[in-house]
Amino acid sequence: MAFDKDKITALLTELAEIDAPAGFEEPMAAYLVRRLTNAGFTAETDTMGSVIGRKTSGRPNAARLLVDAHMDEIGLIITGKADRDGFLRFAAIGSVNPALLPGQRVKILTEPPVYGVIPILPPHVKKEKDSVAVSELSIDTGGLPFTEDFLGAPAVLCAESGLLGDSAFFGKALDNRLSVAAILAAIDELGDTPPANDTTVTFTVQEELGLRGARPASFAIPCDYAIIADADFAEQPGVSSDRVRKFGGGVTIARGPNMDRDFTHTLTALAESADIPHQISVEPGRSGTNAEVIQLSGVGVRTALVGAAVKNMHSPVETADIGDVLALSRLIFAAMTAALAKPAAITFGD
Amino acid sequence: MPFDFALLEELCELDGVSSREEAVRACIAALAEKRGLPHQTDAVGNLYVKKPGKNPGTNLRLMVCAHMDEVGVIVTGYERGYLKIAPCGGVDPAAVYGRALRFEGNVTGLVTAPPPHLSRGEKTPEITAMYVDIGAEDDDIAKALVPLGAVGTFAQKGITFGNGLYCAKAIDDRFGCAQIIGMFGEEFAGDVYFVFTVQEELGTRGAQVAANVIKPDIALILETTTAVDYAGVSEADVVCRVGSGPVVPFMDGASVPDKTLRREVCRLAKELGISVQTKEKIAGGTDAGAIQRAGSGARVAVISLASRNLHSGACTASRADMEDCCRLSLAFCKGVLSGEIEL
C-alpha cells in the first residue's frame, strides 16, 4: 500500500533534498527518470529537460491521459561579484519574496556546492525601514575568491524539512514536490497492473519562470485528458479568504474556465465514490498553473486541476497537510485506474 | 591551548533565551564539576566557577565574564491555534520571518509568511504582528503544547563555510562561554572568578548582580560584536571586520573600558603576533557597563569576536579570529595575576 503516512513523509523528505531551481532541474530529472523506469514506464527527457514517461493500457481505443506536475522550484542565480571581496550579487529565479532573504543561508550549486549567508542589514544601514529589494542584498561566501564558476550558478535557500505537529510536513519546494510525491505514490500503488488509460506522466521544467516547460512536454504526446497537479493556497493569517483553501480539507479540485467541466465532474465523482476527502477551489480565470498551457496544447485538451493547500508558499517553510497529499495521490490513482471515455477525434480540419 | 571548536558547536545548539539559560548553565556546571572546580548559581541564575591560583594570597580579584543567554522570542498569546510572540532581546524581524523556530519542549514553530502571489510581501512585519504555526488546530491545543511565556529560538543547525567561517545561532555569546571553559584547565598565579551571566540581551541585567557578588578589581568581558563588513555597505558603517582579529574597543554605548588595561591588551596582542581591531562606531554595549559601575566600581577590559548577522540564527564569525581571541584573553588573565601586566 503506497498510501501510507510514513511512506509519503519519507518520499517528501527525499524529494525536498534534491535541489532543482527552475532551469536547473537535471538532478530531479535524473531521479524521476529512474523512478518511472523502475515502475515500468518508458521514460526520457525532452529538449527542455522535462521528464516524459509512458505506460499503455493494452486496451484498444483507450483514452489518453496525461498527468503533469512541475518539478522545479524557486531559487536564486549568481549574477556577479559584489563591491566587497567575498560577496556575490544575485537575482531571483521565480517569485521570491525579498523580505525572507536577509539572514538566510543559501547553497550555491557550483561543483562542488558551497554555502553562503545573505547578510541582515542592521538598522543603521537600512535605507528604508521594513523593506528590502533583492538588488540591495548580496551573498556572503565567507571570503571565497570570486571565480567565473560563480557566474550563472543557481542557488537555493537552505531549509530543513520535518513534521509539524502530527499531520503536517514542512520544508522548501513543497510547491510542487507534494504533487511529484503524490504521482509517484500513485504509480507505486499501480505496481504491475496496466493503467486503465494510455497514460503519460510529465514532470515539467521552468513552471516558476512562467509555465515554460509544459508547452513542449504536453505537445510531445497528444492526449485526450490532462490532470495537472499543483500546490494551491492554504488559509493562513494575512491572506484574504476568497483565494485560499482549507488546510487539511482534502485534495483540491478546481473549477473555472481553465478546467473542463465534465472531466472535473468525473474526478469529483471518483473522489466521492472512493471516499477521498476533497474540496472545490474556484479559479476565476487563468489558473497560473501548467493547466493554462496544457488546456491549449495541440488540438486542445480536457483539463482538470487538482492539488493540495500549502501554507507559506514560496518560503523555506512551505507546509502541507500529509492527509491532503495522500488524498491527492489517491485521486490520481483513481483516475489512472478508471477507464475514461474516449472522446471523438476532431476531424474538421482533415 | 587550542580553541575547542566542537565545544562551541555544542554550546550553540543549546537553547538559552534570556531568563531560560538552564540548559547552558547545566552544561557549563557539569564541565566545571568534571575539572573539580567549585561552582554556585545565584538568585537570578548567574553561574560562578572559581579556579584557585597556584600562589594564593594575591589580593587582586579577577573576574572573567561571558553571558549565557541568547536572543529569541516569547509567547504572548494565541489566535486561531497560532502562537503570538514578542521579541526577547534585540531580534531583527527579518531574522524570524518565514523561519523555523524551536520552542520549549522541542516544539517546532513556523513563522508564517503569506505567499508573494497573494500579498505585497516585501514588507517584513513587526515580530508582534507575526503568527507562529505549531500545527495546532485551536488555541487550547496550542496552549497545551506551548504555554504562555514559553520562549523559542532559531531551529537551524550551525554550518562551517567559506574560508573558515562558522554560521550558527547564539555565537553571541556562547563563544565567550567556550573561551572561559577552555580556561578551566589552565594554571593561573592567583585565583580567577569565572562568571557566566544571564539576561545580557535584556540590558546586561545579570552582570549587575554578578559584580556585587564577586566585587572584582578587574573584570575581563568576553563578548561578540556587530561586524557590518557586507557588500553594499559604506566603510563608515562597517563597525568592525570578520577575519581582522579580536576587537578591543575603546568605547561602546555602555562603557569606556579602562585605558591602561586596553593598552596592555594591545601590547600583549603585539607580542603574540595577533592583529587586533577596534569598534569604529560607538554603538552597542556589553556587561562591562554594568560591572564597571557596580558596587564601588571595577576596572574593565573587553575582548570581542567580530560577528556578522549578530542577533539572528546566522551569526557568522571567523574561526581564525576565535583562536586569536582565545590566546589573547588567556594571556591577559595570566598576565594580570602574574604581575606581568602593568596595572
Structure characteristics:
heterodimer; A: about 350 residues; alpha+beta; Aminopeptidase; Elongation Factor Tu (Ef-tu), domain 3; 2 domains; eleven-stranded mixed β-sheet; six-stranded antiparallel β-sheet; 17 strands; globular; B: about 350 residues; nine-stranded mixed β-sheet; six-stranded antiparallel β-barrel; about 25% strand
Largest sheet of chain A, if any? Answer: 11 strands, mixed
CATH class of the largest domain in chain A: Alpha Beta
Rg for CA atoms of chain A: 21 Å
Which range does the strand content of chain A fall in?
A: 25-35%
Biggest pleated-sheet summary of chain B: 9 strands, mixed
The secondary-structure class of chain B comes to alpha+beta
How many domain units of chain A? 2
- Kindly provide the radius of gyration of chain B, computed on alpha-carbon positions and rounded to a whole number of angstroms: 20 Å
CATH superfamily of the largest domain in chain A: Zn peptidases
Helical/strand content category of chain A: alpha+beta
CATH topology of the largest domain in chain B, what is it called? Answer: Aminopeptidase
CATH architecture descriptor name of the largest domain in chain B: 3-Layer(aba) Sandwich
Q: Name the beta content range of chain B.
A: 15-25%
User: Helix count of chain A, per DSSP?
Assistant: 7
Rounded average pLDDT of chain B: 94
The portion of residues assigned to helices of chain B is 25-40%
Shape of chain A: globular
CATH topology of the largest domain in chain A: Aminopeptidase
What is the overall pLDDT average of chain A? 95
